[in-house]
């Protein structure tokens, strides 16, 4: 299956702006603010950087957070840290996993317990493509 990957521009060429009425409380209800805020969604997602991509996820190995069909925003400018969700190329095939460096190399860990962690040693052909910064999925 071909991987779906699309570059995101750091700023919109057209006005793909979203207007909001302010913020909404995730705790106690608050009065709605009457101000409008405009944001460029491309700039929000990319932090104004190039080398940021949309990649569609498939499979269930990251099922706790990422569902098959979700769109992942992947930033290639970021250095992965322990616990980050990353896109890794393993022998030319791409996978989404939790980044877990260890003394003997690198462990790529699934969020779904039915998949064992995969130990990547220095001799293995493994490259981190980028760090997942956003997950886009439908609520229903």
Describe the overall structure.
The protein has 140 residues and is mainly beta. The chain has a domain of 87 residues: Umud Fragment, subunit A (Ribbon). It is 4% helix and 41% strand. Strands 1-4-5-10-6-7-8-9 form an eight-stranded antiparallel β-sheet. Strand 7 and strand 8 form a beta hairpin. The chain is globular, with a radius of gyration of 18 Å. The model has no long low-confidence stretch (mean pLDDT 85).
Sheet with most strands: 8 strands, antiparallel
Number of strands: 10
Broad CATH class of one domain: Mainly Beta
Which outline best applies?
globular
CATH topology of one domain: Umud Fragment, subunit A
Low-confidence stretches: none
The percentage of residues in β strands lies in 35-45%
Task: Bin the helical content.
Answer: under 10%
Reading the helices and strands in chain order gives EEEHEEEEEEE
What topology does this entry show?
Elements: E1 5-8, E2 17-20, E3 37-40, H1 41-46, E4 52-56, E5 71-75, E6 85-90, E7 93-102, E8 105-109, E9 118-120, E10 126-136
Antiparallel strand pairs: 1-4, 2-3, 4-5, 5-10, 6-7, 6-10, 7-8, 8-9
């Amino acid at each position: 299956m071909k991987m779906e990957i699309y570059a995101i521009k750091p700023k919109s060429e057209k006005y793909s702006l979203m207007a909001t009425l302010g913020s909404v409380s995730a705790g106690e209800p608050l009065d709605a603010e009457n101000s409008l805020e405009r944001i460029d969604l491309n700039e929000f997602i990319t932090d104004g950087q190039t080398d940021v991509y949309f990649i569609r996820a498939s499979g269930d190995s990251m099922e706790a957070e990422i569902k098959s069909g979700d769109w992942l925003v992947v930033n290639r400018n970021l250095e992965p840290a322990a616990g980050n969700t990353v896109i890794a190329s393993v022998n030319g095939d791409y996978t989404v996993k939790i980044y877990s460096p260890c003394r003997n190399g690198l462990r790529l860990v699934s969020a779904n317990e039915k998949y064992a962690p995969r130990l990547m040693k220095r001799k293995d052909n493994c490259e981190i493509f980028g760090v997942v910064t956003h997950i886009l999925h439908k609520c229903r």
